[in-house]
Amino acid sequence: MKELIKKALPRRREITPQLLRPFNSFLEKEASSGIILIIVTLLALVWSNSPFSETYHHF
Questions:
Q1: Phi-psi category of residue 12: left, alpha or beta, with phi > 0 → left and psi -120 to 50 → alpha
Q2: Tell me: the pLDDT tens digits for 29-38?
Q3: Rounded distance, CA 21 to CA 15, Å?
Q4: Among 22, 32, 51, 56, which residue has the fewest nearby CB atoms (within 10 Å)?
């Protein structure tokens, strides 16, 4: 059982950086923070003007 875990863990460590690399490269760019800010602002506007606006104002 321990051998299986030892074999699986290094592989898992190799896969994680491969999955996170696109997100990290996106977040390293200066424009990404502006894009995220615009998206979150639009979501807040839609939420505050939706039928669920009471939850927005209560939050």
A1: alpha
A2: 777 888 889 9
A3: 10
A4: 51
pTM: 0.48
**Could you tell me if 44 and 56 are in contact, meaning their C-beta atoms sit under 8 angstroms apart?**
yes
CA of 37: how far to CAs of 1, 33, 42, 54, in Å? 47, 6, 9, 23
The full set of domain ranges for the chain reads 2-58
SS (H, E, C) 15-46: HHHHHHHHHHHHHHCHHHHHHHHHHHHHHHHH
Residue 18 in tokens: 């491969």
DSSP code of 12? H
